[in-house]
């Protein structure tokens, strides 16, 4: 029996669930045993709003452990990874992505359109806050943080103080809690975060045997979708807590004309959005291309959004943007 591979993971229920799935899948595919090693990150220790903690709060300690060699590989929620490449590290696989859409969990089984004006909706992400305001439903959007259970308790628990919360469907799915969802939100209304629902399996770039081994976990269409979404995010120079949304769908396109073999080309459809936190400015565009051009599609869509003024929404042009305004109050 070979020595177990050490898989570094955050200790939250969600992180443990997703790392456990990856460990099982790797052992099933390769026969290699995997042990989970818990690593505490700054994001776990602080209860400040995520957009105040800075990029990478959930991943830096895991990456430090990888670099130091105390773990062999790590599983991250891909949307929590900063877009800047990490020196010496490599994303060796993106497993099949979960449904990336956001979910509404509301009292009395309500859907979004059934929420009365003034209904209180909790969410921590600027992207969701912005899109909830953009609906023009006069919702009272309340910033919340914490793990999935504590967020659900704000609606479902004995001390419930909110009418609804919005959170990633993927997180609920990994915890086996999709039963509480009252509506899975249409991406045309609530476009997900870049890479939401996807995992990144990361190891040291020079650990070539492991890079090769982990590749069995990769799902090419999921990987390409994430590449397109994150190219958009990186080109906008925005982080995981910016009011930027992107969602790529990979589908088989029309067979290309003459090919006797009837080549089926995989097409990628990317939609991106930049929304001001108060919802008054809302830029949304989409674009299609081939799978091989995933990164270029993301960059091109970001360039189009910048042409429309995304910069001023993101605060890169010296005007007030998310970095310079105050959020966190009940708007
Ligand atoms: N920002 C927190 C976070 N990071 C990853 C997930 C779970 C969903 C995923 O893996 O994309 C969540 C919870 C949420 O957004 O509700």
TrEMBL record:
Gene Ontology BP, a term: protoporphyrinogen IX biosynthetic process
Family of this protein: Belongs to the HMBS family.
HAMAP family found in the cross-reference section: Porphobil_deam
Gene Ontology CC terms, in alphabetical order: cytoplasm
Keyword Transferase applies: yes
Subunit comment: Monomer.
Superkingdom of this protein's organism: Bacteria
Record Pfam families: Porphobil_deam (PF01379), Porphobil_deamC (PF03900)
Organism classification: Bacteria, Bacillati, Actinomycetota, Actinomycetes, Micromonosporales
Protein name, as recorded: Porphobilinogen deaminase
InterPro entries from the UniProt entry: HemC, Porphobilin_deaminase_cofac_BS, Porphobilin_deaminase_N, Porphobilinogen_deaminase_C, Porphobilinogen_deaminase_C_sf
Molecular function terms, GO-annotated: hydroxymethylbilane synthase activity
Reaction it catalyzes: 4 porphobilinogen + H2O = hydroxymethylbilane + 4 NH4(+)
Domain Porphobilinogen deaminase C-terminal: 225-306
Co-factor remark: Binds 1 dipyrromethane group covalently.
Keyword field: Porphyrin biosynthesis, Transferase
Encoding gene (name): hemC
Extra remark: The porphobilinogen subunits are added to the dipyrromethane group.
Domain called Porphobilinogen deaminase N-terminal: residue spans: 5-210
